[in-house]
Amino acid sequence: MIKFRAVTKRFPDGTEAVREFSLVIPCRKTTVFVGSSGCGKTTLLRMINRMVEPTSGDVAIDGESVLSKDPVALRRSIGYVMQNSGLLPHFTVLDNIATVLRLGGTKKREAHERARELLDTVGLDQNLAKRYPSQLSGGQQQRVGVARGLAADPNILLMDEPFGAVDPIVRADLQQELIRLQRELDKTVVFVTHDIDEAFLLGDQVVILGKGAQIIQVGSPSEILEAPANEFVASFIGAERGRRALHIKQTPNGRVLVDEQGRTQGVLRESPDDHASTPEGGE
Ligand SMILES: Nc1ncnc2c1ncn2[C@@H]1O[C@H](COP(=O)(O)OP(=O)(O)OP(=O)(O)O)[C@@H](O)[C@H]1O
Fold this sequence. Notes:
Helices cover 32% and strands 26% of the residues. The chain is an alpha/beta fold. The chain has three domains: 160 residues, P-loop containing nucleotide triphosphate hydrolases (Rossmann fold, 3-Layer(aba) Sandwich); 64 residues, no CATH class; 43 residues, no CATH class. Strand 9 and strand 10 form a beta hairpin. Helix 3 packs parallel to helix 5.
């Protein structure tokens, strides 16, 4: 469990990126920070592994303050995946993945073996192992970035807009891979995005943030969709629009759900465990 306790970050130029932020991030779940540009998402993420130090307050992992830990050891024990992969251009794919292990003293041969395993884990072909980052597509680079984040088998994986710079089709592919990986690996994932659809797809817990990382609403995607905290959230999640604003239409063959434009999006069926007759997706 990661616990933020009244964390504030003020940068030397006076910018207050995060103000009095408190939150519990549960183990082995995916928590997504979502909010508009500059609201403090990256700053929050980086305070978990001490790439940024809080001005006041504390972040604790399993009850132990990160401030009491050696920052270098802490950073190596937590996976970090960033936008544009952050790969070292003069290192091969294998060496990029193996970096954290090598820094931790693992022998080259062993580190490369682990790196090869990780290529499989993230769905990359073994014949890419000796290539350089510039010889990969954007999606492949991001997969290498994820493999590198997983190299030291961390319990916690921090992901800062990892799929922000790839096209929508590759992005959807990477999102599905992450869902599969999470099912297999069971990590505590903290994921930053400004895309609410991505947040709802990946998050067990979604944290909608305003300026200064002020929490506007926190909950599961269903909780937020079913009861947006205010007008801002309703508008941010598009509760009144498109496929999020469905209504019921009676047809000769039963009831269907239609969107704003009247296009049918699904069929209403009675939930098998609910004979009290509230249809799934309900009224
Ligand atoms: N080193 C720094 N010095 C001064 N201000 C900073 C620094 N780093 C970030 N900030 C400011 O802190 C605020 C929060 O930045 P942060 O990068 O955490 O936001 P974000 O929500 O991740 O934004 P984005 O979605 O654009 O990446 C912004 O106003 C930013 O300009």
